[in-house]
Structure formats: C-alpha cells, structure tokens
Amino acid sequence: MSVNKKIPMRKCVGCGEMKSKKEMMRVLKISEDEFQLDATGKKNGRGAYLCFSKDCLEQAIKTKGLERSFKQSIPKEVYEKLEKEFGTLETE
C-alpha cells in the first residue's frame, strides 16, 4: 500500500495563486520592524509567501498584501530592501 505524501500549499500575497511551499519565497518578520527573505522556508518567525517573480512583489506592495498578512504597516525602507534582495535572488 503506497502512502501519498501531502504537499504543503501556500497562497501568494501578490497574485493570490496557490502553489507548493517549495515553489515560493517566504518573507519573514523577525522582530517588530525587521523583515527578511527566507529562501529555505525554515527560519523562525511569522511568514508570508510570494512567487519567485518581481511582478508578484510589486503586486503585493500595490495591494498591501504583506501589510495584511503581518497585520501592521510596513515602512518604505523595508520594501526597498526586499526589492533589492529579491533582485539578487532572481539573478542567481
């Protein structure tokens, strides 16, 4: 008897698509004002998921998807930092 392993699904805060956890980038809230990207998906902290496309990040900024996920307003500097980190990950 084979056991079907359940694949964890997450919703992108940018485009709203459901994808497997491994296909997405996790935005992590470490402390009150500290956010970072978690490519492994294993770091501690509250997380929200984005597709690996800059369009989804821009959509999440425009629709305030990250702010809804973290239930707080996010400073512009954090968005700029995330865009820079996202750009380095896309080029790798």
Walk me through this protein's architecture:
With 92 residues, the protein is an alpha+beta fold. Helix content is 35%, strand content 27%. The mean pLDDT is 84. The protein has helices at residues 54-63, 65-70, 76-91, and strands at 9-11, 18-20, 24-31, 34-38, 46-51. It has one domain (9-91): YlxR-like (Hypothetical Cytosolic Protein, Chain: A). The longest helix has 16 residues, at 76-91. It is globular and about 55 Å long. A 3-stranded antiparallel β-sheet has the order 4-3-5.
For the structure shown, list the relevant keywords.
two-stranded antiparallel sheet, Hypothetical Cytosolic Protein, Chain: A, 3 helices, single chain, three-stranded antiparallel beta sheet, 5 strands, alpha+beta
Write the CATH architecture name.
2-Layer Sandwich
CATH superfamily membership, which one? YlxR-like
Quickly give the structural class.
alpha+beta
Structural Rg: 14 Å
Instruction: Let me know the largest β-sheet.
Output: 3 strands, antiparallel
The top level CATH class name:
Alpha Beta
Poorly predicted regions are: none
Q: What is the global morphology?
A: globular
Estimate percent helicity. Answer: 25-40%
- Mean pLDDT, to the nearest integer, reads 84
Please, how many helices? 3
Within the CATH hierarchy, at the fold level, what is the topology?
Hypothetical Cytosolic Protein, Chain: A
Q: What's the SSE pattern?
A: EEEEEHHH
Q: How many β-strand stretches?
A: 5
The total number of structural domains is: 1
What is the straight-line distance between the termini? 41 Å
Note the beta-strand portion.
25-35%
With strands numbered from the N-terminus, the spatial order across the biggest sheet is 4-3-5
